[in-house]
Design a protein that fits this description.
CATH topology of the largest domain: Nucleotidyltransferase, domain 5
Structural class: alpha/beta
Shape: flat
Radius of gyration: 26 Å
């Protein structure tokens, strides 16, 4: 039986009624065109509910999903790796209030692999092929094989949730999972980055402020053009090409065109655009700094020189948190993010007792279960780090 896509308002409203008549949680997934389009909008939304069936929607054709959201907003929504899809779902009016994330749940449950295909195989014994996950979902019409793949992504999620929920209950981790799911819903998934051009891959190889100014202008020119034609920037001119041009600073447009590292399908067809950007970078008085100001702490590899005490605290705390991670069978990055551990190690509270460490971590955004699990271990690690720092001085006396 062929899988069809609902692409009319009439068909959509009929589906809303059918979904409302079903029962239990809502399994939902979205397919984007990452790597093909500039936007991260949803080009296909899949929904499954027991008693209703499976529905595939064409979001660009339908527009707002507010009617569907009104029907299902108070139900539990099941997503796999929800942080990847929530932004594009919210763009069309789909915004859950209760969430069960099967990818995050798999991490907390201690499953060795957390991709949807492997989780389905581990928990249900069903092999789920993932050959179309990186497809261009803005393609119209969508191939039937892609639609079958997309439907399977949601049809098994409710069964996965049932098994995983029991696993979490049996392991005493249901409350941990609930805190993590709530944190995903509350998180700002579209943070505004300052100076996004600094995320150019290979930017570290550029020396000189004027070269950085050219890199910035090239990035901004590419970003504007990519947005204009809704194409992924890297498909026009890759980062490596922009960095090469900024590093070499070709003296003429002909030199730019002859630069073999300057590649990409729009590298020559838009040569005037890139040359204008280089000229703008060479002429601007708004020069960037080599390293942006901010509260970012140095990379850990530099700590032994810049702050030896912090280096010892971090190394001791890492070992302690890793041990807790093993005991709880929760990945260390989910137990406490490396960023939080670095921040509290670099700038610890005046008192390093467990209560003070707990307060500091909570202020930094850690969840209650995370500090309950790690604060005492980190406190003890800091004490031991201080003792090893002071030991040589005591020996000399």
């Amino acid at each position: 039986m062929a899988v069809t896509v609902i692409d009319t308002r009439e068909g959509y409203l009929e589906a809303v009624e059918a979904i409302a008549a079903g029962h239990g949680p809502i399994a939902i997934d979205a397919e984007r065109a990452s790597g093909f389009r500039y936007s991260q909008r949803a080009y296909l939304i899949q929904i499954f509910r027991r008693g209703s069936g499976t529905f595939l929607f064409d979001p660009p054709a339908i527009g707002s999903f507010s009617e569907l959201n009104d029907v299902i907003k108070d139900e539990e929504w099941l997503l796999h790796a929800a942080s990847q899809d929530l932004t594009c779902l919210r763009e069309v009016g789909l915004d859950p209030t209760r969430l069960f994330d099967t990818e995050l749940g798999a991490r907390i449950a201690g499953l060795p692999r957390v991709g949807l295909g492997t989780v389905v195989e581990e928990l249900l014994g069903i092999h789920l092929a993932k050959e179309h996950s990186a497809a261009d979902w803005s393609t119209r019409p969508l191939p039937q094989a892609w639609l079958v793949y997309a439907a399977l992504d949601v049809e098994l999620l409710v069964d996965v949730r049932d098994v995983m929920g029991k696993m979490l209950d049996d392991a005493g981790k249901a409350d941990i999972a609930a805190q993590e799911f709530s944190a995903v819903l509350a998180r700002d998934l579209k943070p505004v980055r300052e100076q996004p051009w600094r995320r150019l891959s290979g930017l570290h190889s550029i020396r000189g402020i004027r070269n950085l100014a050219v890199a910035r202008e090239l990035w901004e020119a590419r970003d504007a053009y990519a947005r204009e034609i809704d194409t992924a920037p890297g498909r026009l001119v890759p980062d490596s090409a922009l960095v090469a041009a900024a590093r070499v600073l070709p003296e003429t447009k002909r030199d730019l065109s002859a630069l073999k590292e300057f590649t990409g399908r729009a590298s020559r067809s838009q040569i005037d655009r890139w040359w204008d950007a280089i000229q703008a970078g060479l002429a601007t008085s708004d020069l960037p700094v080599l390293r942006p100001p901010g509260e970012n702490i140095p990379p850990p590899r530099a700590w032994s020189d810049k702050n030896p005490e912090a280096d010892k605290r971090l190394k001791a705390a890492r070992a302690a948190v890793t041990e807790v991670s093993t005991e709880l069978n929760i990945p260390v990055e989910n137990l406490l993010t490396p960023e939080l551990l670095r921040r509290v190690s670099w700038n610890p509270p005046a008192s390093t007792d467990a209560t003070s460490i707990e307060s500091a971590l909570l202020d930094m955004g850690a969840r209650q279960w995370q500090v309950d699990a790690t604060a005492q271990a980190i406190s003890q690690a800091f004490v031991e780090a201080i003792q090893t720092t002071e030991a040589p001085a005591e020996a000399d006396s």
